[in-house]
Amino acid sequence: MVNSRKRLPPLQNLEAFEAAARHLSFTRAAEEINLSQSAVSRQIKHLEQSMGVQLFTRTHKTLELTKAGRTLLDGIERSLTELRRTVETIENDRSPTVTISASMAIASFWLLPRIAEFKDRNPDIRVRVIAVDGEDYAAIRNNDSDFTILYDQGQCGGQVCIGLFEEVIFPACTPAYLKGRTFTSIADLSREKLIDFEVRHLRTVKGWPDWFTRAGCQTRGIDYTLSVSNYDLACRAAYAGQGVMLMWAYVAPLADFASGVLVRPIDDIVNTGHVEYLVHDAALERSRPHMVFRDWIVEYARRTNEATQAFLVS
């Protein structure tokens, strides 16, 4: 068996080089790794001699990497990143925590109601849910989550991207609001008390006017009874009988429709063809706890889709 370390320069020399290359300063590198400046300089000189190349261009006031120096730094950084991920994988297997981020609507209405199911099956895996208010998908991406649920595949950025739900949108209200009202066409709905909420993050449906257009109905001047800032508030207003809201099928509370708490005032739906995706870094595929969680999310989404399709055609 070949000893791979025989082909490497001394690791302390590589450590000194990495710190100096990152800071472009022997002094700051020495402070970071608790050596004298002269010791750092000697280690880098030994490294250059052993490799037979110059790694830095030295002047009186500046320190710059040569082409060989940049190549070596890139290789060290890639190796350190891989080593860091390996250590994190081992630590997660010992005391695993899985973090997932999503919009407030998906976290509140889809994920949390069933997370106990996952915990019952996997009591050794801790789950952390990050819900981003205001449906801000840029904020959903910009955190340290292992998994994110994102709208539209174009946001996946080269990561593993698994489709969960198609975007299907339909009107909903309470039976109390519907009582005494008769809809002979979709145009009748446009004259009702419509609850609006901000959906600026979406690339497709931009609220009621857009929904009516996609459903094949041209409307003039919709008068909103109530406008709110997020999906949760729209749901609360609809449950209170204040009007009709647009509901996304994959977060629809199907049990409340089955029990008669909510109803669909008309059968019309809009399927935009867009999809919510589960996104994660490929490195997580080496982590058993993360793959257990991913498999559960995908299976839960499959069951959600089956139940939603049955509901929409009933």
From TrEMBL:
One Gene Ontology term of the biological-process aspect is: positive regulation of biosynthetic process
List, alphabetically, the InterPro entries matched. Answer: LysR-type_TF_proteobact-type, LysR_HTH_N, LysR_subst-bd, WH-like_DNA-bd_sf, WH_DNA-bd_sf
PROSITE patterns, A to Z:
HTH_LYSR
Per UniProt, residues of the HTH lysR-type domain are: 9-66
Name the keywords, alphabetized. Answer: Activator, DNA-binding, Transcription, Transcription regulation
In Gene Ontology terms, what is one molecular function of this protein?
A: DNA-binding transcription factor activity
Similarity remark: Belongs to the LysR transcriptional regulatory family.
Q: What's the protein here called?
A: HTH lysR-type domain-containing protein
